[in-house]
Amino acid sequence: MSEQAVRKVVENYIEGTFTANTDMLKGVFHPDAIMTGYMGPDLMIANPTPFIEDVGSKPAMKESGDPYKAEITNLQVTGNIAEATVYETGFFGDGKLEDHFHLLKDANGDWKIISKCFTTL
């Protein structure tokens, strides 16, 4: 049951990114979540808000470049914590990314992303 719930959160992240559904994206992150990683050579450290705003301004499913695709390549649940890896291609047209997510079950029993570490490939 927990693995299905975690998978659903990650799938909602993917769908929200693909469709630029900012409400869906806000719903998958814990209020204290952090995002860290590299867009090319640039290190980014922030909460998810700038990412969500950027996705909302230009959907990943834009018509130019490769179509957006994302695949969960790893998912592991241990008690009230989980990790997942997502490989994305066609992000904003041409980008390739690998995301490493950490999730936890919050006080309400809902799974939320608490951290995302990413890099362009």
Automatic annotation (TrEMBL):
Pfam families: Lumazine_bd_2. SUPFAM superfamilies: NTF2-like. InterPro entries: FrzH/put_lumazine-bd (IPR039437), NTF2-like_dom_sf (IPR032710). This is Nuclear transport factor 2 family protein.
